[in-house]
Amino acid sequence: MRHNKLKKINKKSKHKKLMFYNMLYSIIKNKYISTTISKYKILKKFFDKKVKKIKRNRKFFFSLLKEKKINFTYFLKKIGKKKSGFLRVEKIKQRKGDFSRIIYLKL
Description:
The chain is α+β, with helices and mostly antiparallel strands and 107 residues long. It is built from 4 helices and 3 strands.
């Protein structure tokens, strides 16, 4: 049985943590990113957990950001009253080098 198993990405744990925090920051700042499907599957759970925490705690939102210019009320309005499923997915193409599928994530 596969209880509590995640997709594997061939990175060390500190690198993965920083990578997903950077992706989270980019989504909040730019409202979209492009990434591979395997990274998206892990990012989806990570993003949902952090957004739930952001909804409860405004200070956590500003601790994530490197720039303080991002509007908190706009972010909350964009999310709405959803409990999960904050990211929209569009499949774009396949990368030329290794033919991995690239997807486009929107807030």
